[in-house]
Design brief:
TIM Barrel, about 15% strand, 8-stranded parallel β-barrel, alpha/beta
């Protein structure tokens, strides 16, 4: 089965937040993406709410429950107590933990699983006890995979930023892709499912899903939203699904 597509709505929310107005509608564009075949929606509610607002979560949860019950809700963020209570309140299907500083513009690295195991293990246990699937943001480094597995997580999400950044240098992109592939191979062998995300676009998705045939899910926001400005959200969602290998 091809990798599922979760549409990250943070870039939509950031555009909305430029004005004290309700458009573009985060839930409205999420509805269009799901109607076009997306398998889920992702948000990253940062403490300052500069992108997704805390109030968006209840609306997205209701959208999925009422209109697209087969879809999944993925909430990502740094695991402060406030964040953990937020996900426990809104009950996403998946919680993706990222090692972000609150001031970061965007996620730009994975966890140091070896060095931060004692921090992550009780958090993962708390979330899994609450019934959530847990995914941990990971750099392309096979040596970190055993420590990631030992946290108790269900999945890792490969940070694909370096791969995406070499969009105009095919040789560097190839080398980054192989790092991602080797890490995915190690994770799958260790019993972990593998997600991926960051700077993925229609042009670089096919090579990624070919190298990692066991890829479970991709979460895509910036590149997908940029394309939506040109093609519209519905057509863009279908373009990204096709790039993942889904039939038209």
């Amino acid at each position: 089965m091809p990798a599922k597509l979760s549409v990250n709505l943070n870039a939509v929310a950031m555009l909305r937040n430029r004005r004290d107005l309700p458009w573009p509608s985060v839930t409205g564009l999420g509805r269009i993406a799901l109607a076009a075949g997306a398998h889920g929606l992702t948000v990253h509610p940062r403490p300052d709410e500069r992108h997704t607002r805390f109030s968006d979560l209840a609306e997205i949860r209701a959208l999925i429950d009422d209109e697209f019950p087969q879809a999944e809700f993925n909430v990502e963020g740094y695991p402060t107590e406030e964040f953990l209570r937020l996900v426990e309140k809104h009950q996403p299907d998946q919680v993706t933990l990222v090692p972000d500083d609150p001031a970061q513009a965007t996620s730009d690295h994975g966890w140091d699983f070896i060095g931060q195991a004692s921090f992550l293990k009780p958090i993962v246990a708390r979330l899994k006890k609450g019934g959530f699937r847990v995914s941990l943001f990971a750099d392309p480094d096979p040596a970190q995979v055993p420590a990631a597995r030992d946290t108790g997580t269900d999945r890792i999400e490969l940070y694909t930023g370096p791969y995406g950044s070499y969009h105009s240098d095919s040789e560097k992109a190839r080398k980054e892709l192989e790092k991602l592939g080797e890490t995915a191979d190690a994770a799958l062998a260790a019993g972990l499912a593998v997600n991926a995300g960051h700077d993925l676009v229609v042009a670089n998705l096919p090579a990624l899903v070919k190298r990692i045939p066991g890829l479970t899910e991709v979460s895509i926001g910036h590149g997908l939203t940029a394309d939506a400005l040109e093609y519209g959200m519905s057509a863009t969602t279908r373009r990204f699904l096709a790039a993942c290998g889904w039939p038209a």
